[in-house]
């Protein structure tokens, strides 16, 4: 295992443990040695995103997508960041690229579906949420968003069932309870 790979693994462990400062320092050290190291670019970009340095995060994540054009995760994080920066069209393009690279990328599918739902295209949004559920049948975000899409489409019984499924997976899920309340349906007692 190379020194850079070992350092990257250690930095990632720190990152996952919440020690963002030390992880960022290690990622920066890697980038001094290997300026195009895609994983260090992406992960440092994620940290910059997490701490609210959006312009720096965009710069790093864009470099990561260029350094490793087949990285679905780099495209996903760039897309999420661009959503926060209200660059909707660029965000959608990055998220769509993510799904091209990894068709079962649950989080990207849910994000795309959310954008389609905002555009009023309930049918296309529903298709994305169903793709996300095919990738992960326990996705709370996908179930709740599926319920919203079904409500928009006027399929109220199916919307109720989607919110109830989310509650069966997570009985205290506020968004699912709110979805049922909007339908005028009492929430199901958890079993």
What attributes characterize this protein structure?
elongated, 191 residues, Serine Threonine Protein Phosphatase 5, Tetratricopeptide repeat, single chain
Beta-strand content: under 5%
- In helices, the fraction of residues equals over 70%
The CATH superfamily label of the largest domain reads Tetratricopeptide repeat domain
Q: What structural category characterises the helix and strand content?
A: mainly alpha
Low-confidence stretches: none
Mean pLDDT: 92
Gap between N and C termini: 49 Å
Q: Provide the CATH top-level class of the largest domain.
A: Mainly Alpha
Number of strands: 0
Q: What series of H and E elements makes up the topology? A: HHHHHHHHHHH
Please state the second-level CATH architecture of the largest domain.
Alpha Horseshoe
Rounded to an integer, what's the Rg over CA atoms? 19 Å
Largest sheet: none
| Domain module tally | 2
Anisotropy-based shape: elongated
Task: Show the helix and strand layout.
Elements: H1 3-16, H2 20-33, H3 38-50, H4 54-67, H5 72-84, H6 88-101, H7 106-118, H8 122-135, H9 140-152, H10 156-169, H11 174-183
Helix pairs in contact: 1-2, 2-3, 3-4, 3-5, 4-5, 5-6, 6-7, 7-8, 7-9, 8-9, 9-10, 9-11, 10-11
Question: Describe it for me?
Answer:
It contains 11 helices and no strands. By secondary structure, the chain is an all-alpha fold. The chain has 2 domains: 1-102, Serine Threonine Protein Phosphatase 5, Tetratricopeptide repeat (Alpha Horseshoe), CATH 1.25.40; 103-191, Alpha Horseshoe (Serine Threonine Protein Phosphatase 5, Tetratricopeptide repeat). The relative contact order is 0.07.
